[in-house]
Amino acid sequence: MTQIFIPRYRLVDEPPGKPHYVYVVEVLEGGRHHRIERRYSAFHCLHRELRKCYSTPLFPPKRVRSCQPKVLERRRQSLEQYLQAMLRFGPSRAQVLAFLGVKKLKAGLECIDFNSENKAMEHQPIFNFKKDPYVKAEESNHLPDVVTQGVLLGLYGNTHC
User: Fold this and answer.
1) Which of 14-18, 31-35, 48-52, 114-118 reaches the highest mean pLDDT?
2) 3-state SS string for 15-72
3) Are the beta carbons of 21 and 12 closer than 8 angstroms?
4) Which Gene3D superfamilies does the record match to this protein (predicted)?
C-alpha cells in the first residue's frame, strides 16, 4: 500500500533565484520511505497532464495573494488531499508516483491505456532445461547434494543430518 503525505513546506531562499516555497512530500511505498521536495508549479504541471486524461478533483488555486502561514497551510492540505485522491484513482497512480520519482514511466508516455490488450513483451523468453547442460550425466550421479544439505543444516542444525 502506498501512502502520500505533505507534512510541511519550507522557504527556499538561495542566491541565484528568487525566494519560493517548496512542499515536502513523503511517500511510504513497499516498505520504503521517500522524501521529495517540489514547487507548487510542478504540482500544477502534473495536474494539467492528469486533467488531459482523467477527471481530476479540485486543485488548489495557483495565485496566492499572501505568504501568510495560514494561507500556505491551507494550500499544503489541499495539495495533500489532491495527491491522495489521484493515488487512490488507479489509472493515475503510475503517473503520480513517476512525478514524485518513486517509479519511472517510459519516456514520452503521457496517457496510459490500461485496457490495452496488445502489449509488447519487454523481456527475453525464459528457457527451461530438463537437465543441467553444463554438468555431464555420469558426473552428476557422484556429486553430493551440498546445497540441500547446507539448507537443511542451516534450518535444523546437526540434528537432521
Assistant:
1) 48-52
2) CCCCCEEEEEEEEEECCEEEEEEEEHHHHHHHHHHHHHHCCCCCCCCCCCCCCCHHHH
3) yes
4) Phox-like domain
| Spatial CB neighbours of 140, under 8 Å, sequence gap ≥ 6 | 131, 132
Total structural domains within the chain: 1
Q: Give 80-103 pLDDT, tens digit per residue.
A: 999 999 888 888 888 888 888 887
| Cell 528457457, located at residue | 127
Compute the CA torsion angle 132, 134, 138, 142 (nearest 10 deg). -80
Three cell numbers written together for 127: 528457457
Phi, psi dihedrals of residue 64, rounded to the nearest 5°: -110, 125
**Residue 157 located in a structural domain:** no
Q: Please give the grid coordinates belonging to residue 61.
A: 488555486
- What's this model's pTM, rounded to 2 decimal places? 0.60
Domain membership of residue 40 as a residue range? 3-99
C-alpha cell at 136: 555431464
